[in-house]
Design a protein that fits this description.
Strand order of the largest sheet: 1-2-3-4
Shape: extended
Number of helices: 2
Largest sheet: 4 strands, antiparallel
Oligomer: single chain
Radius of gyration: 19 Å
Structural class: alpha+beta
Length: about 80
């Protein structure tokens, strides 16, 4: 009984921590619009027609390896 209470309280603590961490992250702020594009302060642009989000510019020439690294870094910083 004591072990199951510890397990339940531990799981509850993890869920609460995840909830508060997930909701405290700031969303990027809109800095401009043109036609169906919305620019954000994190360097991304949303195409409201296709619902795709793009990097507004690249910091280095894009080849396959650079693109894969860029996407991995975006996923790591987003989630």
């Amino acid at each position: 009984m004591k072990r199951s209470m510890l397990l339940i309280s531990g799981l509850l603590a993890v869920i609460l921590a995840w909830t508060f961490i997930g909701f405290t992250a700031e969303a990027p702020k809109e800095i401009g619009r043109e036609e169906h594009f919305i620019a954000y302060d994190d360097g991304t642009v949303l195409d409201t027609k296709t619902k795709l989000m793009w990097a507004s510019k690249s910091s280095k020439p894009m080849n396959w390896d650079n693109a894969r690294t860029y996407i991995k870094n975006c996923k790591a910083s987003t989630f």
